[in-house]
Amino acid sequence: MTNVTMTVNGKSVSGNVEGRTLLSSFLRDDLRLTGTHVGCDTSQCGACVVHVDGLSVKACTMLAAEADGAEVKTIEGMANADGSLSVIQQAFQDHHGLQCGFCTPGMVMTAAALLKENPKPSETEVRDYLEGNICRCTGYHNIVKAIMAASGQDVSAIAAE
Amino acid sequence: MPKDGGIGSPTLRREDIRFLTGNGKYTDDINIHGQAYAYFVRSDVAHGTINSIDASAAEGMPGVAKVFTAKDFEGVGGVPCGWQVTDRFGEAMQEPKHPVLAEGKVRHVGDPIAVVVADTLEQARDAAEALDIDITELEPVLNMKDALKDGATKVHDDLTSNLCYDWGFVEENREAVDEAIKGAHHVTTLELTNNRLVANPMEPRVAVGDYDSSNDEHTLYTTSQNPHVIRLLMGAFVLGIPEHKLRVVAPDVGGGFGAKIYHYAEEAFCTFAAKALKRPVKWTSSRSEAFMSDAHGRDHVTKIELAMDKDGKFLALRTDTHANMGAYLSTFAPSIPTWLHGTLMAGNYTTPLIYVNVKAVFTNTVPVDAYRGAGRPEATFQLERVVDKAAREMGIDPVELRRRNFITEFPYATPVAVEYDTGDYHATMDKLLELSDHAGFDARAAESKKNGKLRGFGIAHYIEACGIAPSNLVGQLGARAGLYESATVRVNATGSISVMTGSHSHGQGHETSFAQVVSEMIGIDASQIDIVHGDTAKSPMGMGTYGSRSLAVGGSAMVRATEKIINKAKKIAAHLLEAAEGDIELKDGAFTVAGTDKSVAWGDVTLAAYVPHNYPLEDIEPGLEETAFYDPANFTYPSGAYGCEVEVDPETGKVTVLGFTAADDFGNIVNPMIVEGQVHGGLAQGIGQAMIENCAYDDQGQLLSGSYMDYAMPRADDLPMFTVDHSSVTPCTHNPLGVKGCGEAGAIGSPPALVNAVIDALQRGGHDVTHIDMPLSSDRVWAAMNS
Amino acid sequence: MHNFEFVKPGTVADAVAALKGDEAQALGGGQTLLPTMKQRLAAPETLVALSGVDEMKGICKDDEGRLCIGGGTTHAAVAADGSYPALSAMASHIGDPAVRNRGTIGGSLANNDPAACYPSAVLASGATVTTNTREIAADDYFQGMFSTALEEGEIITEVKFPIPEKANYQKFVQPASRFALVGVFVAKFADGVRVAITGASEEGVFRWTEAEEALSANFSPAALDSLSVSGEGMISDLHGTGAYRAHLIKVMTGRAVSAAA
């Protein structure tokens, strides 16, 4: 067992982990931050995306030990300080960008990473950036719309119905 | 203008808040103090005899509580099938036992042989490697037609053959159909497969069993679309636990699409083991495990023949299908290729004579059951493909051929035993042509040609039957369950309301849309209304969510219960207002005496019901809580016209979906935002089936598409923005909301539209290609173009 | 996963020392290794994370004008660099954004997946793979599917890419994994053209020498007209036959030549 210490959503946390403990397991099982979901075992679905030192990573494909000393942000840390939904989260609700909610945490974390890199992405750029996030419910239409709306673009022209 | 919050309003979803902040509570988020972890050891061969299982080394490994095998399940029932089909000779289908853990034989890759339960999952996996399992491999049964040959290896030694049933529908029409086809002006024939799919909700299945020895109570937390059905099947047929000692909870569920309807062995195992070990037992499926243990969908091989007169009027239809059941009968498997498939073969057309033959076959593959659409996509696909092929053979425009045969008078009794109550197929077709700018297609095709691409447009018109019902009829058809739905409306003293529904939301947004309905009926703000679902301890016996039934059936039950509430509340209000009950009107959350300004607020009436000081106790009971069970009189029949525009790269065969238009008639709409989302999701799954998804086995029965590395899930860049419309409305005539259901439509209408579009593109490009089997992956399209 | 001891050295020397242990394995970004270990298909006793070795990270140019990329450099960093545009463009389409933030060039090359993108860039560019002990020419480095010239415990510290006059990578994606069903990297140098193909062959990445000769004489898609690739020895699977992959090689090579800049 190794001791790891990291900052998660602004709070310093530590715990003893095995070498094989994944960051996703550490978050879910040790810290009880169950918003980070695990939807596959081949690093493809993206339900587990979190930010490590400001970069999006798949928490199911990173060892907890590798995050020792890192700043980690999860879906639980995405709302505004007063608890209200952040711009991205609010856009997902406003544009019905989620149904069952299982892929949603990863979608929100990926969207946040995209908008940091590219504040006004085109539809094609949004779709490309979502390559590693699978949603089975929405057909992506409203997710793409929500992300573009969150970037401040007018999405009323996008086929709404 | 949509009313704020009521029926017809695009109310934002209240459940989104918890999902967007990481506060959803899914089954895998549930951890009970002291829980152990189950790891299923599964067969890695498709067919084999289990000679021995030696668990002694594994049982001695660190953390291991116990290794379970079939021996531990002696005296325990098999996983039951919920539907018995009667074949065309009047005999019951062949129904093999489906043990919780394999008994003597393994019958598909993934068939569970043993379960290791340990303190941690990794310890259980470590110990599983120490199990010594000796299996003699047998020849696998994979090809359905070969499986039915004399002398074929049998999947189940105790059955007479691999044939589950040979179903004819309508058997009395068989000869007349044969005659009509023989004498017809033209017969179009098409042989096709409907590819096997894996539902792949993003949340893998999970089960947590808990046992309280102090009062002999079992609790199962599970990823289910219908917790009451699980309680009934598992309690009554597998473990023999009476319902009052068994609680099944399905909390937030991350998508279902059919795969979470069924009762699975893992649920029974965790419930059983929790009692045996006197500690909670948790199982979480990995995605790879899901591919070999979740029920699969589709997998039909079909020959369809359509007979026409010289004007293209449909005279008769004959279809012959082999339907793969897999190794065991999943909960509703036998009903899918029969009652949910044969009954839809009329489509939107007046074809007077139809005969459907279905042979259901056992093979050494994962069991096959309902997947979004369930039987209806298979019916629609073959019908809309053969109609398209017929149009080309007859030289009639595919839109025109469909129009010539549309049903226009309702109610309409089809020759396949169902009665459509209402519809307007020309209206949806008109809407499709308008929204897809069909008139401008030729110009767009010319533009594509300049860029070296082949552009095509394909149409499909579908009908589906939702809200399968009524119970007495489906009982005659072999259902071993009722198909009603329930609701309890509990009004609290201060006027807030909890609605306990037997349907279940796993993405559909019932917490929002159901509240809209009650809010509209009573006239109080929707924020005062909570929708409670997913717990057998809270809701009355209900049948859950599948088959696009929740609003049409579950919503109707809720309406009936709310009507009872309103009736009783009016009596109380009449007493409070000292007026006649018949003069009381409920409007905007207040009761008024008609024609006066005398009124009493909703909250005063509800308070009186629970603090009955000034109350007509001699006439009515205190309290305000009502339950209703609603059993529909008929199916509902949503329909719609779908159009797909594609571009094919002739050098690579790659298909790009440029646009997809869906013009649906869902009857009345409660929340258009949610309806559109449902259609988007259905379209993505249908386009996925048509273009990239394929569950394939090799000739040894090994799953070739056993993970997302080989099973192609549609991603954001595979799909276009969709154009969806639901402005064509013919309300359902027999349920109180006039609603039809919208959950499956997208997945039903889209595969034939896409395939028709690709064939159109290839033919416009001069390629004599009349059919390609799904998925239309680039290699298949390229091969067809170069054959 | 089987359990293992996790070590995270800070220097190449310490990493090399740690890899001398029994059943020790290097961990780059882990984007392939960790899923493999989850399936229990790999079970090292010690996992030596290279992410703490700062001397293996970063991108610079050497005196010969070669682009030198540290073995521990992520795909995202290469994608963002831009001084070898075709290479950056290729890196920007490996996996997905989250994978690119973890996956490294050294990890990809050490694994040598037959459908990975990087091997084709390294081979077509005639790059040099530098390890803790030696320099290996690309033509000597790749030795078949999942097989390389690396010795036990040898670490890729740097990869040096000569920058071609023109280059382009065309990936035809396998629809499920999003790896290359066929990927073609074309690089035009003053002294000739190199064409490397990934995703297609049962032998892993390879050079299409006929196309190289034709394109060296005439760098245009038309130069490929008379050529064809045989489907023999090409991967045949659920996603495409050998014949289809062979066909795609020619199509994608033509597109790479057209797009080369």
UniProtKB/TrEMBL annotation, chain A:
What GO molecular function annotation could you give as one example from this UniProt entry? 2 iron, 2 sulfur cluster binding
For this protein, the record's Gene3D superfamilies field holds: 3.10.20.30, [2Fe-2S]-binding domain
Do you know which PROSITE patterns this protein is assigned to?
2FE2S_FER_2
Q: What residue stretches are annotated with the 2Fe-2S ferredoxin-type domain?
A: 2-78
SUPFAM superfamilies per record: 2Fe-2S ferredoxin-like, CO dehydrogenase ISP C-domain like
* InterPro entries linked to this entry: 2Fe-2S-bd, 2Fe-2S-bd_dom_sf, 2Fe-2S_ferredoxin-like_sf, 2Fe-2S_ferredoxin-type, Beta-grasp_dom_sf, Diverse_Oxidoreductases
Keywords, in A-Z order: 2Fe-2S, Iron, Iron-sulfur, Metal-binding, Oxidoreductase
Protein name (record):
Carbon monoxide dehydrogenase
Automatic annotation (TrEMBL), chain B:
Protein keywords: Molybdenum, Oxidoreductase
Q: What SMART domains does the entry give?
A: Ald_Xan_dh_C
GO MF terms on file?
iron ion binding; oxidoreductase activity
Q: Residue limits of the Aldehyde oxidase/xanthine dehydrogenase a/b hammerhead domain?
A: 21-139
Kindly indicate whether the keyword GTP-binding belongs to this entry: no
| UniProt name for this protein | Carbon monoxide dehydrogenase
Lineage of source species: Bacteria, Pseudomonadati, Pseudomonadota, Alphaproteobacteria, Rhodobacterales
UniProtKB/TrEMBL annotation, chain C:
Q: Which residues form a coiled coil?
A: none
Gene3D superfamilies recorded for this chain? 3.30.465.10, CO dehydrogenase flavoprotein, C-terminal domain, Uridine Diphospho-n-acetylenolpyruvylglucosamine Reductase, domain 2
Q: Does the keyword Oxidoreductase apply?
A: yes
Where in the numbering of this chain does the FAD-binding PCMH-type domain appear?
A: 1-166
InterPro entries assigned: CO_DH_flav_C, CO_DH_flav_C_dom_sf, Diverse_Substr_Oxidored, FAD-bd_PCMH, FAD-bd_PCMH-like_sf, FAD-bd_PCMH_sub1, FAD-bd_PCMH_sub2, Mopterin_DH_FAD-bd
A GO molecular function annotation here is: FAD binding
Record's keyword terms, sorted: FAD, Flavoprotein, Oxidoreductase
Q: Does the keyword Oxidoreductase apply?
A: yes
Query: What is this protein called in UniProt?
Result: Carbon monoxide dehydrogenase
